[in-house]
Each structure stands twice: as structure tokens, then as C-alpha cells.
TrEMBL record:
UniProt-annotated location(s): Membrane
SUPFAM superfamilies: Protein kinase-like (PK-like)
PANTHER family in alphabetical order: WALL-ASSOCIATED RECEPTOR KINASE-LIKE 11-RELATED, WALL-ASSOCIATED RECEPTOR KINASE-LIKE 21
Biological process annotations from GO: cell surface receptor signaling pathway
SMART domains assigned to the protein according to its UniProt record, in alphabetical order: S_TKc
Transmembrane segments: 89-110
Source organism of the structure: Arabis alpina (Alpine rock-cress)
Gene Ontology cellular-component terms listed: plasma membrane
Protein's name according to its UniProt entry: Protein kinase domain-containing protein
Length: 499
């Protein structure tokens, strides 16, 4: 007989189940192990857990307790649990995710492909429209000229200029922008991007690119190539690091570097470059926009002539071009205004203005202090020479540290270059030779030019009338002046009216 208290303890310890039975007034305990346990329920810890996962049927045909083939049996106290296989679900999830990624990736790749195809088609269209096929044909016919002219891709120049970043801008003007670029081979270049293009003149532009690419002179900025895959063709030049002559002449703080010796050497460099273009190049080339902003200086203050946006080559049997007037106010001679015929002597006149800038330090268009009259520097210089007031207009920054005889000799040469009659102006090769002699000689014989003294007779003074607008494009002789851009080293690659 087990007491009631003892029975409760025994029940907890043996995990059994007991039922009380009454027989003739006597109580008996009928015990058994609970479900999932087996053993002797009357012993302490007599019932033990059954591992259903290992139990087999009595006939040995298999496990008595089993799960589906796809599940795993896990034993727990008094029971077992079937855990489903998650591999299939994982595979389904991974497969679905991968499928979505493939679909999205495919859509993105398709969009990129279509975009690249459109861009490629557009580039080919621009290349063809801008004369790329003609340029390739011209280059193929020029023996040994493959390395001289290069056709750049738009991607190359975008990479070189950081997609034409504002941080890369070297200069801006009314007609275009110049960017500093770094090619993959390490060369630094200047990339000129114009705002305007004259589609009717593209064939002439290509011809000029071919001609200018053959120019090889140490004082001429080298044209390295062009890009025709953009809406407006891009020109690629060698990079000159020290700005332009206009900036240095008219910088009041730059009185040390621009001493007379440096200025004279610059004049010799420019004259040598123009002489080469006029007579020594493969085809004579007239620059048509010679001015101080188009004269670049390297780190040693040696000059390089740049910006051939309006230049033209001529055949040996031609002496001039009859064109719509182009150029910059203050640099264009009156004879060109009247005849519209641009000759090599027109470049000579513009160079004469640069000589006067070097001597006086004045801008090509000035305002007279007394009368507030706006006047061309060339006219002001000729008047001072005629009245023997030359030294009054000389740049004070060079007056005390120059050789007066040299300055006077250059002034007389400038006066001859500024003769109102083109035929009486010297050729650039003569100007170059004379400047070389002046530069190398210790004493210079000063001679007065009778032709220069006569030039004022019958000469019409040109009323500028414009102070803030410098570049002009007019039809001579009976049209008005149209101001179109500012003084800048950036000029139109395809001037609308100038070809």
C-alpha cells in the first residue's frame, strides 16, 4: 500500500500514470508510464523516454514512427517532431530572386544597348555631316601625314576634359570655349569648342584642317587634330601654359617680366611665324585675325601664333581673297574695309598694331584723356609720330630700361607696317629680317620713311564708335559693323560670314 503523499512524489519522479482502484474497501494503485515513455512505473525514474525516430515496427519493415521522405524526424521528451526540408523553399526563393535580377539586369542592359546604339548612330551622323569622310580621304591622300593629323573620338576628349568640366575652362568668348585637357598619353592639350557651325562651309573647314595640320613652326601653335563626332567639331591644339600677350602687356603688375628685351624678342617670334605662314609653308596661309590675344606665351615668354579660326590658304597663282570682312576692331586696316580683298599685307598691318602695343602698352582701341574720343591705337600712334611726340606715348615701364635707338627703329618699322596703302607695306619676311637685325645690333641707324610720312594724306580715319565690342563681321563697302564677341583668345571655329 502506498500512502497518498508518497504516491504523489513517486508519480512525479517516474513520469508514470496511476489510477486508484477500490476493491472491497481496499485502495490499489494501477500505474503505467505516460505516452512516449516506457519502463517500470513503480521504480524511481523507472520510465524512460522513447526515441521514436529509432523505433521500428514489430515486423521489422521500417521505422514505427517516421516522417515523410522530405522531412526529418527529431526526438523530443515524450514525443517526436517532423521538421520539413527547407532546401526546396530556399532554392525556390533563390531561383525567383535570381530570375528577377536577370530580368531587371536584362532590361537595364537593353536600355544601355539601345542608348549606346542611339549615341553611336548620332556620332556617326555628326561625323558624316561634319566632313569626317572627306577628312579621312584627304588624310589618306597625304603621304607621310598620318601622324600629323589625328581624328579624336568624343569619348577621348570627354575623358581628357572631365566631360568638359567648368574647372577645365581656360578661356571663354562670345563664340566658344577653350578647355584644358589631358590625353591618355600624358600630353596636355587645349580643346576648342565653338558655339557656332556653318554647315555650308564644312568642306572648306576640312580643307583648312588638313592644311593647318601640316604647319610646323616652333612659333606657331600646333594643331594636333580634331573631333567630328560632336554637334560642333572640336579642334585640339598643343597647350601653351603662360597666357596670351594681351594679358601680359596690359597687366599693370607685370612690369618686370615684360621688359623691352622680352617684348622685342616676342616681336621677332611673331614676325618669324607670320613670315613662315606667308611664304615658307606648304601653301601660303593668311591668318586674318592677328592680334595680341591670339599670341600665346610659353613658360620662357617665347611667342606662338594661335587661333586660325578665320585663316585661309591661297594657291600660288592668287594674291588675295575677296571675302566678307572679318577681324577685330583696331587691327583691321582701312584698305581692307574699302576693297574686301584680304592679302598678306593685311596681316602685316595687324602685326604693326601689335608692335605699337608692345611699344606703348596701350590697347588697340583707346580713349583719349583730353577729349574722351574713342580712337584706334594705330591712328593715335601715327599722329604722335607725325608730331614727333613718340616718346610721350611710349610705355613708361620700358622707357628707363631700353635702348632708345632700338625702340625708335621698331617704331619706324611699325609705321611702315601701318601704311594705309598695302603695296607700300613691307612683306612679313622683310619685317622679320629687319627685326632680327634690330634685336641683334647694338646700334641701329634710324631712318625716316618718306612713304610713311605721305600715308596720312588722303587717309580716312575710322570712327570706331564701339568700346565694349571688339570683334566685327561686316560686308564692305556698304554695310554696317556688327559687334559679335569680346577680346578673347577664343574665336569662332566656323565664322558665320567670314569664309
Amino acid at each position: 500500500m502506498v500512502t497518498d503523499a508518497a504516491w504523489q512524489v513517486h508519480r512525479r519522479l517516474t513520469l508514470n500514470r496511476c489510477d486508484s482502484i477500490t476493491n472491497s474497501g481496499t485502495y490499489y494503485a494501477s500505474c503505467g508510464c505516460t505516452r512516449g515513455y516506457r519502463g517500470n512505473p513503480y521504480l524511481f525514474n523507472g520510465c524512460e523516454d522513447i526515441n521514436e525516430c529509432l523505433e521500428r515496427n514489430p515486423d521489422g519493415s521500417g521505422r514505427r514512427w517516421h516522417c515523410r521522405d522530405s522531412d526529418t524526424c527529431v526526438n523530443v521528451p515524450g514525443d517526436f517532431r517532423c521538421v520539413g526540408d527547407k532546401t526546396g523553399a530556399i532554392l525556390i526563393g533563390v531561383g525567383a530572386g535570381f530570375g528577377i535580377l536577370v530580368l531587371v539586369g536584362g532590361i537595364l542592359l537593353l536600355r544601355k544597348f539601345l542608348k549606346n546604339k542611339r549615341m553611336s548612330t548620332r556620332k556617326r551622323s555628326f561625323f558624316k555631316r561634319n566632313g569626317g569622310l572627306l577628312l579621312q580621304q584627304q588624310l589618306n591622300t597625304k603621304e607621310g601625314n598620318v601622324e600629323k593629323t589625328r581624328i579624336f573620338t568624343s569619348r577621348e576628349l570627354e575623358k581628357a576634359t572631365e566631360t568638359f568640366s567648368d574647372n577645365r575652362i581656360l578661356g571663354q568668348g562670345g563664340q566658344g570655349t577653350v578647355y584644358k585637357g589631358m590625353l591618355v598619353d600624358g600630353r596636355t592639350v587645349a580643346v576648342k569648342k565653338s558655339k557656332l557651325v556653318d554647315e555650308d562651309k564644312l568642306e572648306e573647314f576640312i580643307n583648312e584642317v588638313v592644311i593647318l595640320s601640316q604647319v610646323n613652326h616652333r612659333h606657331v601653335v600646333k594643331l594636333l587634330g580634331c573631333c567630328l563626332e560632336t554637334e560642333v567639331p572640336l579642334l585640339v591644339y598643343e597647350f601653351i601654359p603662360n597666357g596670351n600677350l594681351f594679358q601680359h602687356i596690359h597687366d599693370e603688375c607685370d612690369d618686370y617680366t615684360m621688359i623691352w628685351g622680352v617684348r622685342l624678342r616676342i616681336a621677332v617670334d611673331i614676325a618669324g611665324a607670320l613670315s613662315y605662314l606667308h611664304s615658307a609653308a606648304c601653301s601660303p596661309i593668311y591668318h586674318r585675325d592677328v592680334k595680341s590675344t591670339n599670341i600665346l606665351l610659353d613658360e620662357k615668354y617665347r611667342a606662338k601664333v594661335s587661333d586660325f579660326g578665320t585663316s585661309r590658304s591661297v594657291t600660288v597663282d592668287h594674291t588675295h581673297w575677296t571675302t566678307v570682312i572679318s577681324g577685330t576692331v583696331g587691327y583691321v586696316d582701312s584698305e581692307y574695309y574699302g576693297s574686301s580683298q584680304y592679302t598678306d599685307k593685311s596681316d602685316v598691318y595687324s602685326f604693326g598694331v601689335i608692335l605699337v602695343e608692345l611699344i606703348t602698352g596701350e590697347k588697340p582701341v583707346i580713349t583719349l584723356p583730353d577729349s574722351q574720343e574713342i580712337r584706334g591705337l594705330a591712328d593715335h600712334f601715327r599722329a604722335a609720330m607725325k608730331e614727333n611726340n613718340f616718346f610721350d606715348i611710349m610705355d613708361a615701364r620700358i622707357r628707363d630700361a631700353c635702348k632708345p635707338e632700338q625702340v625708335m627703329a621698331v617704331a619706324n618699322l611699325a609705321r611702315r607696317c601701318l601704311n594705309s596703302k598695302g603695296k607700300k607695306r613691307p612683306y612679313m619676311r622683310e619685317v622679320y629680317t629687319e627685326l632680327e637685325k634690330i634685336c641683334s645690333s647694338q646700334e641701329v641707324k634710324i631712318e625716316n620713311d618718306d612713304d610713311a610720312n605721305e600715308e596720312e594724306e588722303g587717309m580716312d580715319m575710322i570712327d570706331i564708335g564701339i568700346a565694349d565690342s571688339w570683334t566685327i563681321g561686316v560686308t564692305a563697302p556698304a554695310s554696317s559693323i556688327a559687334a559679335s564677341s569680346s577680346l578673347s583668345d577664343v574665336e569662332p571655329l566656323f565664322p558665320r560670314p567670314t569664309w
